[in-house]
Amino acid sequence: MPTLPNNPHLPFGDQRNAPWYGKDILSVSQFTREDLEYIFAVAHEMRIMVERVGTFDLLKGKILANLFYEPSTRTSSSFTSAMERLGGSVIPINEVRYSSVTKGESLPDTVRTLDCYADVIVLRHPEVGSAALAAKYARKPVINAGDGIGEHPTQALLDAFTIKEELGHIDGLTVTMLGDLKYGRTVHSLARLLSLYKVKIHYVSPEILRMPPEIIEELQRKGIEQTEHTRLEEVLPETDVLYVTRVQKERFEDPAVYESVKDAYVITPEVMKAAKQRMIVMHPLPRVYEISMDFDDDPRAAYFRQMEYGLYVRMALLAMVLGKA
Amino acid sequence: MPTLPNNPHLPFGDQRNAPWYGKDILSVSQFTREDLEYIFAVAHEMRIMVERVGTFDLLKGKILANLFYEPSTRTSSSFTSAMERLGGSVIPINEVRYSSVTKGESLPDTVRTLDCYADVIVLRHPEVGSAALAAKYARKPVINAGDGIGEHPTQALLDAFTIKEELGHIDGLTVTMLGDLKYGRTVHSLARLLSLYKVKIHYVSPEILRMPPEIIEELQRKGIEQTEHTRLEEVLPETDVLYVTRVQKERFEDPAVYESVKDAYVITPEVMKAAKQRMIVMHPLPRVYEISMDFDDDPRAAYFRQMEYGLYVRMALLAMVLGKA
Amino acid sequence: MPTLPNNPHLPFGDQRNAPWYGKDILSVSQFTREDLEYIFAVAHEMRIMVERVGTFDLLKGKILANLFYEPSTRTSSSFTSAMERLGGSVIPINEVRYSSVTKGESLPDTVRTLDCYADVIVLRHPEVGSAALAAKYARKPVINAGDGIGEHPTQALLDAFTIKEELGHIDGLTVTMLGDLKYGRTVHSLARLLSLYKVKIHYVSPEILRMPPEIIEELQRKGIEQTEHTRLEEVLPETDVLYVTRVQKERFEDPAVYESVKDAYVITPEVMKAAKQRMIVMHPLPRVYEISMDFDDDPRAAYFRQMEYGLYVRMALLAMVLGKA
């Protein structure tokens, strides 16, 4: 963190030769292991600063356009808080469906308009590739906050950062992904990100919701040890990180099949007796029934702390692309 | 008000031993008369500061999550302004119905998520008891901004503060509540709050919209002198505070009954000739036809100033629960 | 721009005798040529400051109520950014249709409520005359951000400022307005504003979408040279400013007529070969097909820069009516 400035108008000199200055954050595939280590180091500094002073003026005078074509209270609030904890301002744009977009304006034009008003653009959009399209036309850095079934890189980064902060390291860990591994954007991105480390991954899911083979092959080529299971008991005892996702009824053609499997993917204090004492349970939230509220007070329940780590990661990314870290 | 700090990151030391630090504001029934006097004293200081400097940095670096499950422009704007006039920031969350809530997230999880992002949570929710539920799970203070037909304590506080600021004191006053006293959340809460003072209360309403007997009994036990009327003329001349609410057509089974009574509950310059010169007319707003616009310029029309007092009360509460007052 | 203050609470002394202090911005017809020159001078200073420092604290501690009864991402974001680049805060009010307005509150009461919370009110409303009505009741300055088919004065000001900044002057220019000149609020207001200068105006439109005769007569009385055309080729070569608007299908009773004329009002690199090298193409945005994206990289394409000039004009107006310029 730089020290405080003399000139209140320019609290910290723009570091235009900073490595991430002006960069877009579009996909987990853009990061090297060194990138992750840098991001996590900055995010850790953010954590220390927030715990010590709450808010500080690193991005004072900077403006974030928070452009959400579909609602997401959690992600939107997280970026808003990240910007405000850094002393910056936010232009909230949640009503896109009713406004110039419905009059037929293209995403490139919308982004070029916001270019004038903001210093960085966070984009949530239902279409795959929209963030890359926006980044092509924007002069200002674009951060992808989810483009449909495509990418949600800041979620994957916060997931990995949570593991790092909670367990001290990622190398050497056994990660178990549980639930709907077929449609879950977050588990796909996290698996790809973890492949930069030396981890073992277990996939536990109903037969029809298995991790897509192309992702398993991609990780295999990188030498990641992976196994597939339908029953959590087989891998829970050796698991360091249990990443839970919801098995949704609507994914099943036959409701009877759903009924027969659903209880196998619900985390309760009883189930967790078989797990280590030092391990963590994660979840991208919102959580419905797949983790019992009875487990919330267990120290291994990391899913609410995970939200907080998300704040630090987003603070780090904002500071980096604005040349302040 | 504390003096200005040396360290711009920590403008005012957190007063963690301040009496209201971290407290929730959930119900009028939580306040003693001493509490009210403290709140009003802080709110009066806020008034002086706003009149003198407009905005000041008492809560610089603090973040308010303004969580509205149902829209209320007035209350939402009032809290936003209160936070901004104190130099703090706001995360506006108005679109809850479209976002993670519709994906089935529970209020406790939403609140625990916001816990990470904000320093204080203001909650408006259609269900009775929701604010207490939120407060149970939130680490940060929760301020109830209306939970259905339950409570709206900051409205009652601003009503009482209005009386205090406009007339100098509350003890000894004659307060007349007019209109729909059966369904009006604001008159119920105000009556309870006023019972901490030595007041006389007149209830004037159509027969079918009388003040609920349990409230009358509750105040009776506290020794409050109360009378019920159907005609305003009977009590207007001795009234110090006339609190007007709307008599809505839809409350009446028989439209003819509504037509026969409605004009008796409309305030006009003509009607007000019978009132004292030094008294005030209040209204929780929005006002429709129940107070004639012709009366707006009368110095006794306090309903717009009432909104302003609301700002000061909310500034006071925010500062108090954040340990800055 | 004033220099920095000693007292952080009052960064710049209120200049209550400043010529625009407390004024409303309601209509282009309120401006003299001297007014425009003053606004443009302040807007130019804003441009220099934004390019140099991005954001500065001229309006620190001031609050803008951004009151939008109908959505307009572009205008709303522009005012939000303008306020934030000046260090001020914003109360965003976009959900008006769901809130107290739907409970029947009148615009005057809404405005008087916001009076307490904000220092300046920006109003977008679907009804003609609403801004004037709001200004009548508000103690704080009101800026009209579009009242139905009425006025949108800040759009006209930014259009004229764009011409001034891009071409250095307005006197002596030939301005061609193209497309739907009958229903286009922006071209009506711009024509009126340009009549304060010595310009020549060409109107190019389909027969059924000609500039209303009352506007042509109004400008004639002021000595403005005007000509009407249906074909752009007739005037493009001598045009200094080409102001493009969309010809919408729904304006035509007979679709065949629309099909026969529409291509004549589309700007492409090919069409623009006949234009000067030193001229500009403007558009109020959103743009759909009426300007080809192939033309966007041409230096004469000024429509995205136009958005940026809008930011400076709105910063200037906010500073002026708040007594800071």
Q: How much of the residues of chain A is beta strand, in percent?
A: 5-15%
Label the structural class of chain A: alpha/beta
Cα-to-Cα separation, first versus last residue of chain A: 7 Å
CATH class of the largest domain in chain A: Alpha Beta
CA gyration radius of chain A, whole angstroms: 20 Å
Which of globular, elongated, flat, extended, rod-shaped describes the shape of chain A?
Answer: globular
Largest sheet of chain A: 5 strands, parallel
* DSSP helical segment count of chain A: 10
Helical percentage of chain A: 25-40%
The greatest interface between two protein chains, and residues involved on each side, is:
A-B, 30 and 33 residues
| Named CATH architecture of the largest domain in chain A | 3-Layer(aba) Sandwich
